[in-house]
């Protein structure tokens, strides 16, 4: 797989988490609170500006879902290894409303996540 490109989003940002499978994997299923190994890219919904990408660092990342933003905790379980999923995450399930101190507070975020492995 290669780094995905996230197209500009149209229309107003959704108020709820949106989960879209781009590719359905055939491997092990991610479970709530489990360990996952992923590649991902994230952009700001409104500007399309990329703010993070494991692809650009040249290596995948593994972590427990329980330590991540709510949009990932809710959006990754059910995914199967080998799959690619797009998550559109409103501020309430990302870094909170504007003014919460994180640079992405108040922003709707779009991630494309490749699930490489389930630990």
From TrEMBL:
Q: Which keywords does the record carry?
A: Isomerase, Rotamase
Q: Could you give a GO molecular-function term held by this entry?
A: peptidyl-prolyl cis-trans isomerase activity
A Pfam family per the record: FKBP_C
Q: Which residues form the PPIase FKBP-type domain?
A: 33-119
Q: Which domain of life is it from?
A: Bacteria
Q: Which Enzyme Commission number(s) are on file for it?
A: 5.2.1.8
- Show the catalytic activity: [protein]-peptidylproline (omega=180) = [protein]-peptidylproline (omega=0)
What enzyme category does the UniProt record give? Answer: isomerase
Q: Does this entry carry the keyword Isomerase?
A: yes
Q: Matching PANTHER family, A to Z?
A: 39 KDA FK506-BINDING NUCLEAR PROTEIN, FKBP-TYPE PEPTIDYL-PROLYL CIS-TRANS ISOMERASE FKPA
User: Which family is this sequence assigned to?
Assistant: Belongs to the FKBP-type PPIase family.
User: What's the protein name?
Assistant: Peptidyl-prolyl cis-trans isomerase
């Amino acid at each position: 797989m290669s780094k995905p490109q996230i197209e500009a989003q149209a229309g107003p940002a959704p108020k709820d988490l949106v989960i879209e499978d781009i590719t359905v994997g055939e491997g092990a299923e991610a479970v709530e609170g489990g360990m996952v190994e992923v590649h991902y890219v994230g952009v700001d919904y409104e500007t399309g500006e990329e703010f993070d990408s494991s692809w650009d660092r040249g290596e995948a990342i593994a972590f427990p879902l329980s330590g991540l933003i709510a949009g990932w905790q809710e959006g990754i379980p059910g995914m199967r290894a080998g799959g690619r999923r797009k998550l559109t995450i409103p501020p309430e399930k990302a870094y909170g409303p504007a003014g919460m101190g994180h640079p992405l507070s108040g922003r709707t975020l779009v991630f494309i996540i490749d699930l490489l492995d389930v630990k």
